[in-house]
Amino acid sequence: xxxxxxxxxxxxxxxxxxxxxxxxxxxxxFVSSFKTNQDIFGSSKLFAxxxxxxxxxxxxxxxxxxxxxxxxxxxxxxxxPTVVLTIISSVxxxxxxxRFVFPLRTFLFSIMMATLMLPDATVMIPRYILFNNLxxxxxxxxxxxxxxxxxxxxxIYMLIQFFQGLPRELDxxxxxxxxxxxxxxxxxxxxxxxxxxxxxxxFQFIWTWNDFFNSIIYISSVKKFTVSLGxxxxxDASSAxxxxxxLAMSVVSVVPCIxxxxxxxxxxxEGISTTGLKG
Length: 279
Description:
Helices cover about 70% and strands about 0% of the residues. The chain is mainly alpha-helical. It is globular. The mean pLDDT is about 85.
């Protein structure tokens, strides 16, 4: 075996071990969803001697008036509009900053970037008061409406970097062919921005899907609980918690995020690797 081949196999072994370490929590979560409470807390072994096979069906049925499928649907009602509106609004704002020169452009861009350094705790109370005055509490509007106005500077900056990496000659060629600014964005730039759009969508989907803090602040009715609140509700339902059911629903709750990532992995990796490059 040559020196190059040995280094190659060593790299494979190290990457395999590192990958196993990274996914071990997910493996433990899945295996433990079939364990009893005694095995979960009484042993550090990955596999148990006895297993419970109805944890998923019982967890999905729930312990109260609403089953876990109800929380699943609620989460989709909140997440999907938020993701779509975030992509649309962020693209429009990023296109304006990257392709047009207008008064106070530098100042507005600086203000936008400054919001990245602003701790969320400093705006939590004013934002709650605003949404309360608008009558939006106990609805999904505090999540959906702000996403329509490009409130995430991180996504805007990511798309600006991607737009700046696209040659301006494409805009000039489209203008010669009779395209206006909107047609240039729709017909020329957006097809090339697919990796960045997938990156924004994946990030926003995962962040909103897993959001517990804001959900528990703005949503108070059990009928409107999301997946994260539904998991917390299962812990408060009784004094004796069936942890295998909680872990089973935790597995179910992370499945959409995992599937989305792997289905869009090609575009996601390409988007992350190219948003910082400029042509």
